[in-house]
Amino acid sequence: MQWKTILNEAIDRARRGELDQAVVLFDQVLKLEPEYSKAHYNRACALGDLGRTQEALTGFTDALNLNPDYVNAYLNRGNLHRKMGDYVAAMADFEAALQIEPTSAKAYGGRGLAYLIQASYTAAIRDFEQAIAYSPKFAKVYLWRGCAYLQLEDYHQAIADFDTALTYKPTLSDAFHSRGLAHMHLGNFYQAIADMNQAIELNPQFVEAYGNRGLLRHKLGDTDGAVADYQQVMRLTAELPQQAVSARPSGAAATAPPTMSGMTQTYEKTMTSAPQLAEIYNSRGKLRAELGDANGAIADYTKALSIEPKRSGIYNNRGILRLQAGQFESAIQDFDQALQRDPKSAEAYNNRGNAYFQLGDAKAALADFTQALQLDPNLTEAYISRAQARAAADDAEGALHDYQRALRLREQQGVQSLTSRSA
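Above: the chain sequence. Below: its structure as tokens.
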């Protein structure tokens, strides 16, 4: 059999998804024609699809050594570098592709995506605009540019881009999900849920869409729906490969700042990151606490902290439940952890003061209440807590002063609330 016949058979098998067999055939071709760059390139593509990343990178490099003008080899190698978090190498490959083919929409799109992942949103938008200029129906570029506008808080422009992406590719589940996030930021919660529904219908394994829909349902008072979505997230993440539920590569920039929902965009093939999964456990913990399931809520907060141990607010939430359960020493430990991570948390000082007060340590309690009020002079709860502690210490005058201050604050807050409603 001639090597060209073997090559064509290898390419056909790769297109059919028979990747292992394709690699074997590509190896046979390269034994017969070791300097044929197209065989190196196609073999590297198959290896990349198999997840054999280092071998794929070597294959693309071999193709480029044989053919330095092989644009697609630069593009594919750049995409692999980006997915590995090596943005310097990725940028170099996309720029090399543009030197050879200055009108390459894929090169502009790839470089723009690398900028986007590194939170260089303005640079990303410039590249996406170039990509659209050369390929006006490139649906994913509209999606990516919409994500950049989403992070820049230009929600209406983001929605316009997601709409365009869906015009050219109505099955793009990421565009529905991202548009839902934009609607969420604008307060269009029902439209956001409708978009999450569409994303899930198109991709029933879309973990982030379930998580965000759960947050929306929780916000709208649909407790049963929120619980169902959180449970689905837990089931799906338990089924995912371990590498799909992990933080970004070492040294990589954060994908994006946290959104209002607590979920972030991934931009690549959908997977749940550690911060996202921790936020889902945190959200379900809050829901369980509201429903009176303190033990379940504590379990969820503990799971969230095992994934993301730097979250001050989660320590505070767990500490509150332990305080309510009479576990005062454990609660103090949680508030200690919260304050180590956020020394300016007036709420955590107030909560720790309450735990000390319950243990009979009035001095430590008063110190924490005072510190809370120094950080937030309008924290009504801290005035009430300190008044109780002062009363217990026979400081009637100080207690009265704090109670009066708390009363005035509540009256002011009530007036402000009425004013905002009438407006």
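The longest helix spans residues 396-422.
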